[in-house]
Amino acid sequence: MFPIRNTVPTRYPPVITWVLIATNCIAFLFEISLSPYELEQLLYQFALVPARYSEILASDEINPVIDDVLPLFTMMFLHGGWLHLILNMWTLWLFGPTIEDRLGHSRYLAFYLTCGVVASVAHIFFNPVSIVPALGASGAIAGVLGSYMRLFPLARVVVVVPILFIPLFFEVYAFFYVGFWFLMQVLQGMLDLAVTPTRADVAWWAHIGGFVAGFALVPLIVQSERRYRAYYRDEGVLGFDPEGRM
């Protein structure tokens, strides 16, 4: 299933989502402008290398400096290829505006970064000796998906399912689409631990950590109905679609 439309209407322009997408794209364009050696140095400095933190925790004196903390944030603005970037930004573009609309711009930015950091910590915890740099916005975006499922479990997501090269379009409930995605992350994460406990090519546990953070945190910071408006879990009330048509 590939999502192509989020049917929940929004009221305000998603300024922070636009900024996040632009920042990720600019960072990626900078990445591909580098030589292979320069790119390797960039990734080992600003992407997330779990073994680095295991060494810090194993030392007698834990005294983290800015170079140790920075990758927890910067890793979520780096990507490993065009497809990696496009899939992440597409998902953020579909679901980010809805959550930004409900949280407000400043809260949404803090929420997004927090989910990204929790995702980084989860990846370190489950892959403590990995020397493979982890990078990508998917952990933070997983937090957006978790919050979307929490706030609008009965919202409809339009997805396309290609069967024998024929695209079929369906409307599914958010709890089904996002829940299925989360279940796949858990299964893949468990399989990864069982098969390759010292190496993680995909940061499954970062996705899981970000999702759980988003699902748990969003009720605490969502705007009250007095500041926004009353809204429903599906937003499909009174027989109107998001454009106001019957």
Automatic annotation (TrEMBL):
Record has Hydrolase as a keyword: yes
SUPFAM superfamilies on file: Rhomboid-like (SSF144091)
Transmembrane annotation, as ranges: 12-30, 72-96, 108-126, 132-151, 158-182, 202-222
Keyword Nucleus: no
Topology of the protein relative to the lipid bilayer: Multi-pass membrane protein
GO cellular component terms attached to this protein's record: membrane
Superkingdom: Bacteria
GO biological process: proteolysis
Protein name (Swiss-Prot/TrEMBL): Rhomboid family intramembrane serine protease
Organism, as annotated: Bradyrhizobium rifense
